[in-house]
Amino acid sequence: MAKREQWASKFGFVMAAAGSAVGLGNIWRFPYLTGENGGAAFVLVYVFCVVLVAAPMLINEIALGRLTGKNPVGAMQKLAGTGGLSKMWIGLVGILPLIVTFVVLSYYSTIAGWTVGYIFTSLFSISIPFLEFIATPEYVIPLGAFVILATAFIVLGGVAGGIEKATKILMPMLFVLLIIVIFRSVTLPGAGKGVDYYLVPDFSKINGRVVLAALTQAFFSLGVGWGMMITYGSYLPKDQNIVSSSLWVGAMDTSVALLAGFMVFPAVFAFNQSPAEGPTLVFNVLANIFQQMPLGNIAGALFFLLLFFAAITSTISMLEAPSAYYMDQKKWSRKKAAWTVAIAAFLLGIPSALSTGAVEGLTVVQVNFLGVIKTGVMDIFDYGFGSLMMMLVVLSTCIFTGWFMKTDDSVNEIEHGFPFFKTGNIVGIPPYKIWLFMIRFVCPVIIGLVILNMFGVFGG
User: Fold this and answer.
1) Nearest to 233 by CA among 401, 107, 369
2) pLDDT value, residue 369
3) Confidence at residue 54, expressed as pLDDT on a 0 to 100 scale
4) Among 38, 201, 325, 333, which one is least packed by beta carbons within 10 Å?
5) Fold of the CATH domain 10-454
6) In the prediction, which pLDDT does 278 show?
7) For the chain, which ranges sit under pLDDT 50?
8) pTM
9) How many angstroms separate the Cα of 362 from the Cα of each of 6, 366, 372?
10) Dist CA 208 CA 200 (whole Å)
């Protein structure tokens, strides 16, 4: 039996896992949700949600991967035992996350392609309205193909030689670009209003809708529920500290999201724009702002290059997770698995690429999820798989880990590299008991509330 690939270093694993978590959700989605939900108040709730709920789940998924040394399907086949109930867990915690990741990769690569296009439109000051750009097949399909190809070539290099090597370069570059663009944004005349909006909370704006939006973003941001962290955890050596590695990943992911706000809101307020523009805040409003500021073409190109780096570090893990399934379960070569998944994801992504305006029929497709109406193929894929099914996976993983598998197995696995997990003391309680309480009780209840909110139970 061939020896399973492993990360060459803790730093490499943290960069790869942080890269998996850091994506368009941090730099595109987080700012516009902040703008829609009251600025600093939303930020405060978001950070609380990451620490309280998402971080324990991240530790859990990495532990499940290293415990079994398998992809999500193989992990569940090893842990769930035999019988009818085991098939349910294999489906919910093993197969479903890989389907979710594959479908999300198909349309996420299209959005990542937009960032590549905007690097050049910004650099050369080419003015193309956002809605016109994304509705032009000659732009979006080749750009999406470029993202898939770049991702495939990195994954073909293997765990240490491809993924780890690439993310060790891309992640530090991402932080450097963040600082450069932040400096340009906060030094604009009138930028102080945006900083105040982002840092000074108005607690009256915190309501149930804001809390649930922050919770949902926390899960999206850390990348739990996709099978990617289980897969990455399966490559982690036994002597590595899962807790400290997970906390580093969470800290880096949250830092990128928080820094993204310092790029966006000072510039938005400096040019008297509304922060509550929704999904078009970055690609439309901010792109126009860059065109109006001195040296804005360079700042804009750097900003969208930053977005591309964030996107591709996520598409790498989205491609690796289903590829690992075929390598583990079907004994395919890495080359065959990666190319098969990449080509299939590109083909599935074409309807999403065309549904942003190029083909009217794909744009007006409607699906009603128990009263929540979604329009357009990309919108339907994002809600059905990137939101609803992903949260179902997170809930199922919580319930399985906390109530159906031998919890001692997870606790002992986490203790490898972290000997104080059982014997340590946090306000008089061993860390493992706090973690188990979160996984068994707190996380399932909160995740259940998020799912109910997706069905409009709390009024959207």
Assistant:
1) 401
2) 64
3) 87
4) 333
5) Amino acid/polyamine transporter I (1.20.1740)
6) 81
7) 1, 460
8) 0.94
9) 42, 9, 18
10) 20
Within the chain, what is the greatest distance between any pair of CA atoms? 66
Q: How far is CA 78 from CA 70, 74, 82, in A?
A: 9, 6, 9
Tell me the C-alpha distance between 379 and 366, whole Å: 9
Residue 128 contacts by C-beta under 8 Å, 6 or more apart in sequence? 121
CA angle, residues 102, 105, 106, in degrees to nearest 5? 90
Amino acid identity, position 341: V
